[in-house]
Amino acid sequence: MAPSLSEYKTDVHNDWCPGCGDFGIVNALQMALAEMGIERDRAAIFSGIGCSGKTSHYINTYGIHTLHGRVLTFAQGAKLASPDLTVVAVGGDGDGLGIGAGHFVAAGRRNVDMTYIIFDNGVYGLTKGQASPTLKLGEKTKSLASPNQNYSVNPIGLAIASGFTFVGRGYSYDVRHLKDLIIRAVKHRGLSFLDVLQPCPTYNDINTRDWYAGVDLADESAQRHSRIYKLEETKYDSKVSYASESVLHEKISQALIKSLEWDTKIPIGIFYQNELISACTVRMADKIPNYLENPPSRQRISDNSSPLTDISKILDSLQI
Amino acid sequence: MAPSLSEYKTDVHNDWCPGCGDFGIVNALQMALAEMGIERDRAAIFSGIGCSGKTSHYINTYGIHTLHGRVLTFAQGAKLASPDLTVVAVGGDGDGLGIGAGHFVAAGRRNVDMTYIIFDNGVYGLTKGQASPTLKLGEKTKSLASPNQNYSVNPIGLAIASGFTFVGRGYSYDVRHLKDLIIRAVKHRGLSFLDVLQPCPTYNDINTRDWYAGVDLADESAQRHSRIYKLEETKYDSKVSYASESVLHEKISQALIKSLEWDTKIPIGIFYQNELISACTVRMADKIPNYLENPPSRQRISDNSSPLTDISKILDSLQI
Amino acid sequence: MMTDFTWLIGGPQGSGVESGANIFSRVCAAAGYNIFGKREFYSNIKGEHSYFTVRVSEKEIHSNVNDVTLMTSFDAETIFRHFDEVSAGGGIIYDSGLEQTETVKVRTLDKPFLDRLHRRLESLDCPFTVTGALNAARNNGVTLYPVSFKSLLEGMAAESGNERLRNMIRMYNVIGVSLSLGLVGMPAHPLYKSIGAIFAKKPQVAQTNEHAARYAYSHARQLGEFAHNLPGIAQRPDTILVQGHYGTSLGKMVAGCRFQSYYPITPASDESTYLESHEILEVRNDRPGSTAVIQTEDEISAIGMMIGAALTGTRSSTSTSGPGFALMTEALGWAGINEVPIVITLYQRSGPSTGLPTRHGQDDLLFAVFAGHGDFAKIVYASGDIEESFYDTGRCFNYADKYQIPVIHMMDKFLSSSVVTCKRFDPSRISIDRGLLLEEIKGEYKRFAATPNGISPRSRLGLAGGIFWNTGDESDEYGHITEDPYMRIQMMDKRMSRLDLVLDEIPESEQAVSFGVSKYTMISWGSAKGPILDAQTMLKENGIDVGFVQVKLLHPFPAELIGRLLAGADTLIDIEANHSGQLGKLLLQNTGRKPDYYILKYTGRAMTCTELYDSVYNIIHGTAKHREVLTRGA
Amino acid sequence: MMTDFTWLIGGPQGSGVESGANIFSRVCAAAGYNIFGKREFYSNIKGEHSYFTVRVSEKEIHSNVNDVTLMTSFDAETIFRHFDEVSAGGGIIYDSGLEQTETVKVRTLDKPFLDRLHRRLESLDCPFTVTGALNAARNNGVTLYPVSFKSLLEGMAAESGNERLRNMIRMYNVIGVSLSLGLVGMPAHPLYKSIGAIFAKKPQVAQTNEHAARYAYSHARQLGEFAHNLPGIAQRPDTILVQGHYGTSLGKMVAGCRFQSYYPITPASDESTYLESHEILEVRNDRPGSTAVIQTEDEISAIGMMIGAALTGTRSSTSTSGPGFALMTEALGWAGINEVPIVITLYQRSGPSTGLPTRHGQDDLLFAVFAGHGDFAKIVYASGDIEESFYDTGRCFNYADKYQIPVIHMMDKFLSSSVVTCKRFDPSRISIDRGLLLEEIKGEYKRFAATPNGISPRSRLGLAGGIFWNTGDESDEYGHITEDPYMRIQMMDKRMSRLDLVLDEIPESEQAVSFGVSKYTMISWGSAKGPILDAQTMLKENGIDVGFVQVKLLHPFPAELIGRLLAGADTLIDIEANHSGQLGKLLLQNTGRKPDYYILKYTGRAMTCTELYDSVYNIIHGTAKHREVLTRGA
Ligand SMILES: Cc1ncc(C[n+]2csc(CCOP(=O)(O)OP(=O)(O)O)c2C)c(N)n1
Ligand SMILES: Cc1ncc(C[n+]2csc(CCOP(=O)(O)OP(=O)(O)O)c2C)c(N)n1
Ligand code: SF4
Ligand code: SF4
Ligand SMILES: [Mg+2]
Ligand SMILES: [Mg+2]
């Protein structure tokens, strides 16, 4: 029997600030795992360093809290050695798009079959509110002495330019929607990326829950109450459904254009999805036919401490 | 009197392979420096590690051959400390888009007023031909044991997603065009990026000079003889000429769409240019009014070994 | 007897413990006392337990003691964690509303602590509640001062007619401070002044807080007697109250550091934030100067940018902690082979890996000394206290420039989270020596020209006629790549020879400091100095003479000097905040002499002079282990 | 006298020097000789000078000598660079078309070398041309064998009617080899067989080359007499000819390493390339196995992926060199605090920084030992030759698994670019010990459970019931973050205690090897072993007994064992390929004993036994410096 939702929770004391958007994400993740019925010991959550990095301790599956910026590297290694594990990597926007941006780009190219979720709060939470790479140029959150000096990176655009085959965005206070997104992402065959808008009530007083809810816009227009809207409620079709260069380019460019929306209209949902590009695990199987049935982590290497690998043919070829 | 072209050359023995595309790039760079009449001791060329990394030794200006993947960090530091220097960073595609991709993304956000040129040969030259991040998925150059396992990164798309304000592409065998591009790039107020297609005759037997010249296509169509065409010879307009979100998005998305062209039609020239976003050096001056006239490298800090900085007001405030 | 008073305030992170301690420290300092304050906190933003101990004394003090004289607490956790530290004769001011709180209801009490707490309360026959803990303290001779913080707010609200005050639990910290100051008989005026100073930018907040302070201060009179008081002594001129990072920050400004690149990390980034908040600098007889403070994408970029900036002739530095430093080791070698003067301020914390990221440690010494692949010259230099760190920062930049060498300046979390009084920093005691940095160049220039002492005149990017090349590869005199074996030897010898030069030229007084050498002599480095000095005084007060040698130059190691200094010492006691006795290893490696005893602490909490005293005492009396491990501190 | 013959082939990179040497080595090995070959090359793809020396002997040999017996050269540079190395009685086969070439026309001769060359030729009164250099050699007793390589090609073309042969200068290498083999009287058949084997995948190329070989071989008869010959001796069974990286590569396969992540870097990446080209593995009584070889975006990713893979229970490793290793030090500490078994094969090259990237060095020892911030346990283990490295690789994985600890396996460029004969590797001598790796789990599981010896049973990602957490922070027994001071002490002690366990449990024979101890004793580590063993034999042949102790376990340092082994040694000579005598420092740090003499080499070229012999000889005769610096090798 699949575990119940509560079984995915640990009894570790959660020390995020009251009202932190991170709670919604961890809840959505636990709900997604439960809904998919993934056995607790068949899943591994990898996390980076930051407030967000503590996530892995709150989920009762294998949980690996790695290093700042390196979460994707650990996670990919585990998945490549053990392709039948469900692997989810999570981390902050500083973690993934600042110090970890190089791995982000490379992971996109590699397309390992797993999911990466960025907790996008515009700040470096755990180090007390410095600007993260997603904070817009010139914005000054309350924790900054002067306005942000850097242009913001576009996580969706970056993911697409890097080759991610599933790119979506969620909102941490829309837990059900996020849960569904996570399920889609985990089920995607290839590397899926979710940029999750995550208010940090402690340090980011610009992109707050109210701001996302459009409270400041309400005066201007009585109609709209939220900046956020769902792509799936529009005609937007994210999927590359057959292998043609023109379809591919069309889907990529619509996603890139969509990713530029911000300010008063912020789309969430799936921006881009392409299962026609093979996952890295599949590419491995092209080279090593039995890779998926007999992956590194399952191979028998010894029998009673005697090595089983037979290199005699190689040695023969070296014999003079 | 401005130095002559030959004065920009050193007498260091150049040990690139015969026919290497790197020669064209270093020539174009020297020509550009000469044409702009930049004093030799007012320019600094920073380079990464790789065949391309040797470039700085062949140019008779200040030349800093840095570390693999780190060239942008050194170059930005120098420019920020000495904003009146002409700074050009160069390096390989592995250097800049593999190990250095994180700095690439961050540099885009920072928009320091300098130029970055990637020698894009699809391989790791100096380490004997492994796939670089720009080699396409499934391609097998002669130095690879099996086809390339990774999706290729799109340097132009990545640069735009990262916030570079000038993004172009050159071809190393079209030296004059490249020289002109470099001049435009150096004159750009902000961070300019040039992806230079650079055949590596030793290891990359796919993207060869002949391939770029379209020799294999000649059979199919008698008309076209080169894969490469120039954006400036089309109606393409790369420039963001006034500050409106819709113009910006239009220019960004046309550049991104353009960057997806490959295979039989490869555009070179300027993809995107935006001087409306302030350069980092200008942003510095917003915080520190006399930053440009009195930058870090010019400040007097001592007089006869006595410190000139006066911290007495700060000390007063600490006095109890 | 002289005053020696320790005050403790605790509370969840975000509840104002730090500003409370700040006010208390200022008031006591203004009253003429010496202050030694230290903050402990979790790697957490809100909710976990944080506390501040402020030691107040007429004597010179350099560390904390084990015992607390007066504790003020407005949450149950502070009581549970610290009731046992309050000494007989001491007092606890607490919020009477908390009395019924059970231990298990406090979610932030972690299991290992809770287990210990329960065992302790059980052994004392006390219930697992705040009352239980307080009774335990009372039984131990501690006076309890229950105060209903809620009623105080209500009283204030009623008095002023400002109903909003009723729920301002944010002011519990100021109330706690004011009650404390009232109880110990400190005059009230400095309290109000301090509040004004701390909330200078928010007059409204300042006013409300002052109101609370007045109300609480006068309430303190109703609390009854307390055995200790702090009436204030003569004010001392030229005294400043500084936080841990002020020494290196102000040192950098005065030394002329004009470029600081950094990536945020505890406990280093406070320095960069401070530099940035003072980025525009006053310069004598000149237009304003400035520090370019650049937040980078990671520490690799921080060191790369710093090197780039240093190549322009700008004094440049970065500030980081262990994990960040680890990422810098590749580029460190580049600076080494290219003879680039840079200063890395290394604020250590407890490793390995992320370790205890907000706790203290001195465990990066050997890593710093041997950081980077290949053989190259560097300097590792350590400061023992905040005051020293100001002047040392000046020295580090001079060393870097004179020897064209990377300098690693070792600091740590104990220093960074201390708040102390010290003599006003004297910038005129910092001199600036840029070594062979050229202002103009005539004739042919070779960046790495062979010279008798191995130091080549240095050009900078942009200098007319001074073109040079740099490369991480071995290079010839111009800086162009060479693979020639003889050129290689020449260049290796040239670079490495400066290690001898450093030992020859740096004055001995800058290399190590002897605080007396006896039969038993302590040897240490860095922030352990403070507790050691205090323990040394305590030992002396008890008629025991113990020597102490502080090593400041850790690499190249002043083997001959240290050997000489230690000549009179029979028994060597190595004292460090790490597991493996890293200085001891360095000592043995360089002098062939091995410490006889080790006193080590690696809980992440700084040593107290009390526990150090005990261990040294035991060593002298033959009752100590070869390796004493200290454990004090919650 | 026994045969001891050294052959040298040189040429621009890309001209087939390596395959030429390969053929020559195979032929000589097939003829029953022991082979010691070594390649030197620039950090360059095409055009710079590369050369190969192959020492051929009936005796066991472990290194190169100073002198060359026969040199074959088809470019001027090889003659200019090496003419002086050919000993009296030796010979030079060269392309007569080169005779007029002037030194200054050879663009790849760098200035420092050119200056030395000119001084040398001047002193010998020889013109600055190939002829000048050759005359110098002849005057020194060397026989010259001019051959017009062009005419040979023309002759071949004419003979076969294949005009394309006329311009096949690509075959100059095979021609040089064949001329050499003919001149020394080696039977021809193995030559053709070797060519067939080397070009097995390109039959067309094989055929053309064989043709050239036959033609040149028979031409050799016209060259005249040569004082040395290599007629071939009895073939030896169970001998293999191996390149430097085969030991660790094959060792990894046999040890069951199934995951290797890497980022390309000289001289480490050959190993990964080799593993990938043999990624599918035969497994006894089972379906095929495989190694997942992953090229990462940088070395940070390489170590991260390796750790991730190791957490699944897969034996995992990476292979890198100094700059890459520098980038791994942060994650190394993560593996340390999380007790993850990983193996880093560290192929050292000359540092610091990029240094001499294709040249030899043993200068990362202290960096490896102290790599990473904070105190954590690791093992540093060094192999002395290629054969050893095969078995050592097996050991390293066992150490990693048994002690749940990162292991750094020290290799270097000298090893990696050697080609030697040795006894066929015997996989059955490798045993696999996975330590406490669990296959199933019953009951509650705690990854970091306290145990008597500090090693906790290990689960792996995906194992039913074995859920655990890891964190770089200090953790409790489950792996959840803790900041508790007592838990901290428990965990630090638990992790660090395994250093003692390692010293206790690893057999002494695996920790260090004594090759005899005498009044004068050499101490060393890693690849210096080969030249030392040969020098030791030479000394013995001259009636001088010199001891030698090879340290294999460098960290934790087997202080007691080494002290014991060295007890009989009066005078210690530390021999290493670095500037600072890193093993010497480690020795002093751990045993309090200091080497009396140092023989160091840091030109990037490996030591020859000849120069080592000379230095040791001088030490014994009191004519040596305290620090002897070796310089041999172009
Ligand atoms: C190498 C390294 N540098 C710096 C740090 C310090 N550090 C810890 S968390 C953090 C930033 C966290 O920001 P983000 O990734 O956005 O996560 P958040 O806290 O916002 O969830 C930093 C810089 C570190 N742990 N390691
Ligand atoms: C940290 C580090 N890792 C690896 C290397 C080895 N290395 C030298 S050049 C190079 C790749 C060069 O490829 P690219 O950047 O594309 O330059 P190219 O040679 O093609 O111009 C590598 C991996 C290094 N120098 N430093
Ligand atoms: S600082 Fe921000 S991101 Fe971190 S826990 Fe608090 S609210 Fe959440
Ligand atoms: S390997 Fe390729 S990139 Fe490098 S020098 Fe040769 S041709 Fe140029
Ligand atoms: Mg964040
Ligand atoms: Mg390249």
**What is the strand tally of chain C?**
24
CATH superfamily annotation of chain A:
Thiamin diphosphate (ThDP)-binding fold, Pyr/PP domains
Biggest interface, chains and residues, is: C-D, 79 and 79 residues
What quaternary form is this? Answer: heterotetramer
Strand order, sheet with most strands of chain C:
6-5-4-1-3-2-16-7
CATH uppermost class of the largest domain in chain C: Alpha Beta
CATH class assignment of chain A: Alpha Beta
Helix content of chain C: 25-40%
> Beta-sheet strand percentage of chain A?
15-25%
**Termini gap of chain A:** 60 Å
- Note poorly predicted spans of chain A: none
Largest sheet of chain A, order of strands side by side? 2-1-3-4-8-7-10-9
Largest sheet of chain C: 8 strands, mixed
**Apparent shape of chain A:** globular
Question: What would you report as the Rg of chain A, rounded to the nearest angstrom?
Answer: 21 Å
Determine the structural class of chain A based on helices, strands and strand pairing.
alpha/beta
Overall domain count of chain A:
1
CATH topology of the largest domain in chain C: Pyruvate-ferredoxin Oxidoreductase, domain 3
Determine Rg of chain C (CA atoms, Å).
26 Å
State the separation between the terminal residues of chain C, measured CA to CA.
28 Å
What fold name goes in the CATH topology slot of chain A? Rossmann fold
Question: How would you sum up this structure, described in words?
Answer:
- The complex is a heterotetramer, with 2 copies of chain A (320 residues) and 2 copies of chain C (634 residues).
- Chain A is an alpha/beta fold and 320 residues long.
- Chain A has one domain: Thiamin diphosphate (ThDP)-binding fold, Pyr/PP domains (Rossmann fold, 3-Layer(aba) Sandwich).
- Chain A has 11 helices and 13 strands.
- In chain A, strand 1 (43-47), helix 2 (55-58) and strand 2 form a beta-alpha-beta unit.
- Chain C is 38% helix and 21% strand.
- Chain C has 22 helices and 24 strands.
- In chain C, a hairpin with a 5-residue loop joins strand 9 and strand 10.
- In chain C, helix 7 runs antiparallel to helix 8 (203-220), helix 9 (246-255) crosses helix 10 (269-277) and helix 11 packs parallel to helix 12 (322-337).
- Chain C starts with a strand and ends in a 5-residue tail after the last strand.
- The interface between C and D is large, with 79 and 79 residues.
- Strand 2 (62-65) of chain B pairs parallel with strand 17 of chain C.
- Bound molecules: thiamine diphosphate (2 copies), iron/sulfur cluster (2 copies) and magnesium ion (2 copies).
